[in-house]
Write a structure and sequence with these properties.
There is one protein chain. This protein is 50% helix and 12% strand. By secondary structure, the chain is α/β, with parallel strands linked by helices. The chain folds into two domains: 303 residues, 3-Layer(aba) Sandwich (Rossmann fold); 279 residues, no CATH class. The strands form three sheets. The protein has a six-stranded mixed sheet with strand order 8-9-10-5-11-12, sandwiched between helices. The site of adenosine-5'-triphosphate (ATP) has 13 residues, from strand 3, strand 4 and helix 2. Belongs to the ABC transporter superfamily. ABCG family. Eye pigment precursor importer (TC 3.A.1.204) subfamily. Pfam families: ABC2_membrane, ABC2_membrane_7, ABC_tran. Keywords: ATP-binding, Membrane, Nucleotide-binding, Transmembrane, Transmembrane helix, Transport. This is ABC transporter domain-containing protein.
Length: 658
């Protein structure tokens, strides 16, 4: 059967034989995948292959003398530990290949290297080619990589998630209607149409997608940009045999349409195993077998390892290649299998493909053009869609915002009632006002700062994954998250001041109230910026907390109310430059006491021999505050806000580059 592909700008018309897995009873469509038949995967299909492609049909992945090592610290030195040892292989278009082997054999490491997703601590030597060309950054766009762990914004629905991802991933020239069509088609293929409006949900939540649906959604996300090659890291882990079979069936059908799909897989059931067309067995970082799945049993039989009829071949291969640490005989047997494979006809067959790919790559010196037609979304489009995504999360997840707002209102009420009926024009009132102001500063500092310290890193793994796959930059992510949190950082202090200010009998002028709102809002924003900076500077929240708590205490003690600014020890003098608590306390005090005269020294409840503060300037003077500092305090807070955000961004960028 031949498949006709459409001519596109810069794309060649191709005829691709529809491949089968050599299995006559190839899997039928189940109810969920019925759409596949009509979706274009088994009929006329538009595919984009590069002009220079030597094979001109799909993607051939070839690797030669590939060695992968990781850096490990030994006795304070960094040494390289070899994980993949000089392996060679190839996968042709239309292959659905399973990488199997015992735990720790090197499956994930091999696939990470082949997919160009290696970590910074990995060193990859040797050649990896896509249609004869060395792999490079373009793999981010050309390939899909389905990670083992499903990471989503759990409060989004399936459709919202796909819509956002389509706007981040797809060519900006593609219209919204086309994107919607594409999304609907993919969801239909993967049997997710019925849960389009379902919230994805987090692990442990009763409402939300099932494990199998989440896996399919991860797969659907990777299919959005129609990559000709897909890498899937243990796509069936955690799924029941039915869901696993359903997912691999879909992969099988996609591979039949010309895609190259490579999966690492653990103990597949016989039904699932049968769906793979190619098998790569890895043992001790070497290849124990590579070739058609159907021939693997024969290869092992020739070496004297016969699969008992009661055994699933997949289990048998893994068992044969597993090496218990105390078993020297197994080690020798596995070495023999790998050595025998290296000189077998199967290895020679692979070698022919690899050599052909090298030859074709050399013969086609034209520049790589695959992405030349692709126009990435503008940065501001990405910013919009990311802000939209995080805003949805903030609005829907009560733990992020709404519960916090409720809690702040209760605290504001408590503070207001504690200082209810304060008369600022008495000596007792002076103390009460300063106490209330300290509560304003503390409540707008500590609570928002610690809540953001815990909440901001929640999405860091998702960010790192999407950033490394080339979806967006660190700056766009950072700004979008701050934008999404910003309304809360304005509403929270506003509500707090609105409730606590009028109850606690502070100065009743519109100017004083508005300035208090402004300063409380600034205080909240500086504190959260500081929290974000600490959360990005450290790998874990407990570590960040361990450094932030002492830092806070120093700032609180030197805020102006507990120790006079002039008497702060030299050792702590630096705090005056970073203490927004001091700027905030001073500015709020100035607003309350500026121009106040005739504070009563005889309010009956105090000892008249004690010193009296007769007016506002005297009160300010008591704490070493000065009326002239108001503008300066506000600008200092704005400056700190910018500096903390800048440092927070740089820390995140450093983590993203690691
Ligand atoms: N960064 C690292 N530092 C030290 N050793 C590592 C590192 N990464 C991987 N390894 C080791 O390399 C070997 C192969 O790891 P890999 O994750 O590729 O195995 P795997 O076959 O995918 O295992 P599993 O099936 O259990 O996931 C393991 O022994 C692992 O401990």
């Amino acid at each position: 059967m031949l498949k006709k592909l459409k001519i596109d700008d810069g794309i060649i018309e191709e005829l691709i034989p529809l491949q089968t897995n050599g299995n006559d009873d190839s899997p039928g469509c189940d109810a969920d995948t019925d759409g596949l038949e009509n979706s274009g995967y088994t009929q006329t299909k538009c595919r984009s292959y590069s002009r220079w492609s030597p094979l001109e049909e799909g993607v051939t992945l070839a690797w030669n003398d590939l060695t992968v090592s990781v850096k490990v610290p030994v006795n304070r030195k960094v040494v390289f530990k070899q994980i993949i040892n000089n392996v060679t292989g190839a996968l042709k278009p239309g292959s659905l290949a399973a990488i199997m082997g015992a735990s720790g054999a090197g499956k994930s490491t091999l696939m990470t290297a082949l997919g160009y997703r290696q970590r910074a601590d990995m060193q990859v030597e040797g050649d990896i080619l896509i249609n004869g060309r060395p792999i490079g950054d373009y793999m981010k766009y050309m390939s899909g990589y389905m990670p083992q762990e499903d990471l989503f914004v759990s409060s989004l629905t399936v459709l919202e998630h796909m819509n956002i991802m389509a706007h981040l991933k797809l060519d900006r020239k593609i219209s919204s209607a086309e994107k919607q069509n594409k999304i609907k088609m993919i969801l239909k293929q993967l049997g997710l149409t019925k849960c389009m409006q379902t919230k994805i949900g987090a692990l442990g939540q009763s409402k939300g997608l099932s494990g199998g649906e989440k896996k399919r959604l991860t797969f659907a996300t990777e299919l959005l940009n129609d990559p000709p090659i897909l890498f899937c890291d243990e796509p069936t882990t955690g799924l029941d045999s039915f869901s696993a079979q359903k997912l691999v069936k879909i992969m099988n059908r996609m591979s039949m349409a010309g895609r190259t799909i490579l999966c690492t897989i653990h103990q597949p059931s016989s039904e699932v195993f049968e769906l793979f067309t190619q098998l790569i067995l890895v043992a001790e970082g070497r290849i124990a077998y590579m070739g058609s799945r159907a021939n693997a049993t024969e290869f092992f039989e020739k070496l004297g390892f016969e699969c008992p009829s009661s055994y699933s071949p997949a289990d048998f291969f893994i068992k044969t290649l597993a090496i218990p640490c105390y078993e020297t005989n197994s080690k020798i047997a596995v070495k023999r299998i790998c050595d025998q494979f290296a000189v077998s006809d199967y290895a020679k067959e692979v070698d022919v493909v690899v050599q052909y790919e090298f030859h074709m790559g050399r013969a086609q010196p034209r520049e790589f053009e695959l992405r030349s037609q692709f126009k990435e979304p503008f940065w501001w489009q990405k910013l919009y869609w990311l802000t939209y995504r995080w805003s949805k999360e903030v609005l829907r997840d009560p733990s992020i915002q709404s519960l916090r707002i409720l809690q702040r209102m209760v605290i504001a009420l408590t503070v207001g009632l504690a200082y209810y009926g304060t008369d600022p024009m008495t000596q007792m009132g002076v103390q009460a006002v300063e106490g209330a102001l300290f509560m304003f500063v503390a409540e707008n500092t500590f609570y928002p700062m610690y809540s953001v310290l815990a909440a901001f890193p929640d999405n860091t793994p998702l960010f790192l994954r999407e950033h490394r796959s080339g979806l967006y930059g660190t700056a766009v992510y950072y700004i979008s998250r701050v934008f999404a949190l910003l309304p809360g950082f304005i509403i929270e202090p506003l509500l707090f001041v609105l409730i606590a200010y009028w109850l606690s009998g502070l100065r009743r002028t519109p100017y004083a109230f508005c300035m208090t709102v402004l300063i409380a809002t600034l205080t909240t924003n500086v504190a959260t910026a500081c929290g974000i900076m600490f959360s990005n500077a450290f790998e874990s929240v407990p570590t960040a907390m361990a450094y932030l708590v002492p830092f806070d205490y120093v700032l609180m003690v030197t805020s102006g109310l507990f120790v006079k600014r002039g008497t702060v020890p030299v050792l702590m003098a630096w705090t005056r430059y970073v203490s927004w608590l001091m700027y905030s306390t001073e500015s709020l005090s100035i607003i309350q006491w500026e121009g106040v005269k005739n504070i009563s020294c005889h309010d009956g409840s105090r000892n008249d021999t004690l010193p009296c503060l007769p007016d506002g300037p005297s009160v300010l003077d008591k704490y070493s505050f000065s009326e002239d500092n108001l503008a300066c305090d506000i600008w200092n807070m704005v400056f700190l806000l910018i500096v903390f955000h800048l440092l927070g961004y740089l820390c995140l960028r450093r983590r993203a580059r690691k």
